[in-house]
Amino acid sequence: MTSLILATTTPGEAEIFASLQGEGASIGRPSVFVRLSRCNLACQWCDTAYTWRFAGDNRPHRDNLAFERGSNQVAMNVEDVAARIAAFGVPRLVVTGGEPLLQAPALARMIAILRETVTPLHVEIETNGTVEPSPALDALIDQYNVSPKLAHSGNPAALALIPERLAAWAAEPRALFKFVIATPADLDDVRTLAQTFPIVPERLFVMPEGTDSATLRERARWLAEAAMQAGWRFTDRLHIHLYGDTRGT
Predict the structure, then answer these.
(1) Residue among 139, 128, 135, 130 at smallest CA distance from 174
(2) pTM for the complete prediction?
(3) So where are the chain's domains?
C-alpha cells in the first residue's frame, strides 16, 4: 500500500483543508490544500517549520522551536488522501509542504486516483525549485508555483539555487516564480536570477515575507513600487490577512 507523509493540524489529523489560495497567480481561488511533510531546505523564516524541524534537527530557525515528529506527521494511504480531497467537491488542488516533490511517486499515484473522480481538476504544486519532478508526476500537473530561496533564507546557494533546475523551470511554461522578499536588498538577488536564466516578468512574482498583517503591509508599500518599476507581478499573502498564521488555513 502506497502512503504519503502529511503534516498535521492537530496530532493525528492530516492537514487537508479547503480555503482560498492566498498567494501567486491563483490568489483568491477556492482550493483544496494538502500539506506534505519533510523538506530538503531550512529557511530561517519558514512559517511551516513543523513540517521539517523535528527534535534533533539543529538547522537554524528564528523561532528556535523543535517539533515532535510523531504529533506533526501522519502517514495516509494514497486512496484515503484522494477520497478526503474529493469529498470537498472543489476542482482545484494545491499540494504544498514542506517540499512536495520529495514524495513524487506516491504523490503521482494519489493525483492519478483523484483525477478519476474529480473532473475537471486543476493541480498546482508548490515547490522550492530544487527537485526535478518525476515524469509520472509531471504529466499530471497543471501549474508549478516555484519559490527559489534567496540568501536571506539562510540556505546555502549551492543547495537552494541549483542552476540546472532554475534553467529548467524558466523554460517550463507551467512554472510561475515567487520570490519571498524581506528587505530591498533581496531585490538585487531577484534581478540577477531573472537575468541569468532568464525568467520572463509575466511569470515572476515578488511577495513580502511576514506572518502578520502589519509586517506584510509595511513591506508591501515599497515592494509593490519595486514590482511596478521592474515589470514584475506583486502578490500578497491573503490567508495571513484573513486567518492569521495558523495551520489548516
Answers:
(1) 139
(2) 0.97
(3) 3-179
